[in-house]
Amino acid sequence: xxxxxxxxxxxxxxxxxxxxxxxxxxxxxxxxxxxxxxxxxxxxxxxxxxxxxxxxxxxxxxxxxxxxxxxxxxxxxxxxxxxxxxxxxxxxxxxxxxxxxxxxxxxxxxxxxxxxxxxxxxxxxxxxxxxxxxxxxxxxxxxxxxxxxxxxxxxxxxxxxxxxxxxxxxxxxxxxxxxxxxxxxxxxxxxxxxxxxxxxxxxxxxxxxxxxxxxxxxxxxxxxxxxxxxxxxxxxxxxxxxxxxxxxxxxxxxxxxxxxxxxxxxxxxxxxxxxxxxxxxxxxxxxxxxxxxxxxxxxxxxxxxxxxxxxxxxxxxxxxxxxxxxxxxxxxxxxxxxxxxxxxxxxxxxxxxxxxxxxxxxxxxxxxxxxxxxxxxxxxxxxxxxxxxxxxxxxxxxxxxxxxxxxxxxxxxxxxxxxxxxxxxxxxxxxxxxxxxxxxxxxxxxxxxxxxxxxxxxxxxxxxxxxxxxxxxxxxxxxxxxxxxxxxxxxxxxxxxxxxxxxxxxxxxxxxxxxxxxxxxxxxxxxxxxxxxxxxxxxxxxxxxxxxxxxxxxxxxxxxxxxxxxxxxxxxxxxxxxxxxxxxxxxxxxxxxxxxxxxxxxxxxxxxxxxxxxxxxxxxxxxxxxxxxxxxxxxxxxxxxxxxxxxxxxxxxxxxxxxxxxxxxxxxxxxxxxxxxxxxxxxxxxxxxxxxxxxxxxxxxxxxxxxxxxxxxxxxxxxxxxxxxxxxxxxxxxxxxxxxxxxxxxxxxxxxxxxxxxxxxxxxxxxxxxxxxxxxxxxxxxxxxxxxxxxxxxxxxxxxxxxx
Length: 804
Hints:
Blueprint: H1 5-16, H2 22-30, E1 36-38, E2 47-49, E3 53-54, E4 61-62, E5 69-74, H3 75-80, E6 96-101, E7 104-109, E8 112-113, E9 125-129, E10 132-133, E11 147-154, E12 168-174, E13 182-190, E14 194-205, E15 209-220, E16 231-245, E17 248-260, E18 267-270, E19 274-275, H4 285-300, H5 304-308, E20 320-332, E21 336-350, E22 359-379, E23 382-402, E24 409-433, E25 436-458, E26 471-473, H6 475-481, E27 498-523, E28 526-537, E29 540-541, E30 553-554, E31 557-570, E32 575-598, E33 603-628, E34 631-646, E35 648-652, E36 675-680, E37 683-687, E38 699-707, E39 709-710, E40 716-726, E41 729-730, E42 740-741, E43 744-754, E44 760-767, E45 775-780, E46 786-790, E47 795-803
Parallel strand pairs: 9-12
Antiparallel strand pairs: 1-2, 3-4, 5-11, 6-7, 7-8, 9-10, 11-12, 13-14, 13-47, 14-15, 15-16, 16-17, 17-20, 18-19, 18-46, 20-21, 21-22, 22-23, 23-24, 24-25, 25-27, 26-27, 27-28, 28-31, 29-30, 31-32, 32-33, 33-34, 34-38, 35-37, 36-37, 38-40, 39-40, 40-43, 41-42, 43-44, 44-47, 45-46
């Protein structure tokens, strides 16, 4: 393929990109996300948009020559926008919605995501760090430092990424060691007593080996008045790059992440009064919840004391540790490059979280390993990438959930939850003509999951354990294996009988994903593409016993995606416009919610079902313009139609089993905009067919602008502003009116000074200038209240960086 028009285009484009001038460097370093260079044809003062190299297709490619909708964010962009947690990415990437579900992250992309966050759950959007898949969604925080870039891939990545990437992938690419010495330290201070220190040291050891040590420490008080939504994290990464000869490269990486603090806690909202303190929505959960729950009990005519024994207390405590070691070996064989990528990772958690609006105590130990062997190369008119992949994840864990004395307590003691996955994959690109390419790919996957353990649920008022085939036990028996179950947050023992049931299962699935695409170069700077591809998310288990009224497993979900896109550069590389229209057919989407699990419907738990059908289509736009050598503007927008076309499910209302009149059949239908049909006492059928899928606003938009004021001596001052607009959306599948986020606009601004020799810079910033309260997650409490998580309030601070 060396003589193809595609490679000729690449050579001409790269030839145009020369070393940056002083003004280009200042502008490029100051304006987040847009790296600039001189254009030789325009003279020394003409800046152009630099090419951005991505590895979305498992090899280095120019972003503008990659037939995928990708948002690529440079390390400078991430720092300027104060991206320190996964959920911060929401304000930069339209269509991406990341929220906190207790101590774990929920990732949605174009309406595709996973609401579940416990040990049983798998994400629907793959999260990768330097090519390594992170299976545990509680292990994602603490990785946003010393990054070269973040790549957000929209659409199923079934052939090259495989399982659990039905919505797409989020790739973090850390900076690699270089063969020259460099170092940097950064310090940030801000409101909520924010103190953040980060830095790196790059150390060559001769001309063939180099090391890079990077780290970050963050200490910030909680956004809520009682300390919840805080950040106490420590991270470190040590990387060694060895290049013994020009054909062989060895990269070894060890990393450590510690996440602490009180963690997330959702805030109660009622239809009658809104927030507990409407003048300050971030009034803490432990302050707001007791009054809100007692008021709800009064409205329901139920004893307030039963509610008050299920409130949010101040003892929230997050303790997560992640240790990872990976090795990547690249060997140039001449005709192709052979790559091995292996990893082993352990994740430990011992936390108390009030994320869902009640007490959740997970104690988990997870060990995963993965290995990928792939071959990439080209010959004549054909290029290829293909290989073998193996993944293993084993967990042992306990958890205790306390929804209050009026409702249920659930606990699990799982000695083994295993996941094995093996795959073979390949992708071929054929140059049909100088300007036209055909791409075909496939991936065959074998997936297996098994579980072994026991589960505990409170015995129903009229449903003895014997009706479930379960064994009655006391709280003392449970506390012997789940120590956190001894008492609730107030130190009160549970005066109830519980049912112990076995928790077993062994499931296997196979799947073949495929991709067909056509690419055509209109000229050196414009490309059209059309693709059809599929994605697959493995089935799994959820926490319900073998004798439950529902099966304790669910089936895989699948997606078929059609895309028509265009990538373009205009005005001699000073304007960029990328667009993609897409249509997705979504089948058996895995949706998690509180559902009845034991007869006669007085016991309910967090279950997962398969939604038969959903339809998603829309348009992505990405525009960037260098208005002048000193002015740059960027606009990213997404129109999205995401709708359930067949979605009917059952919900339980255990309050109907209380003494009359409140316990009368049919007196407590769920609060939802969906159609509701009474089935029997405590059971309702809910039809949400035709509803907008959660976290899928019809229109989302981000904009950024920056201007560079050049000072004498080569220094620069750069003010910048960013805005994010979102149309209204549902934050949860319950479709309670209190869970709907109204349309909003959030503004950020910053002012930076860059020294003449780029050795230091200083930035002052304000984020969420209007102090908008925006929902990032929501959960319907069994009482009928809604608990919503909020994105950060107004924050401001100073950030300084010094290079050596």
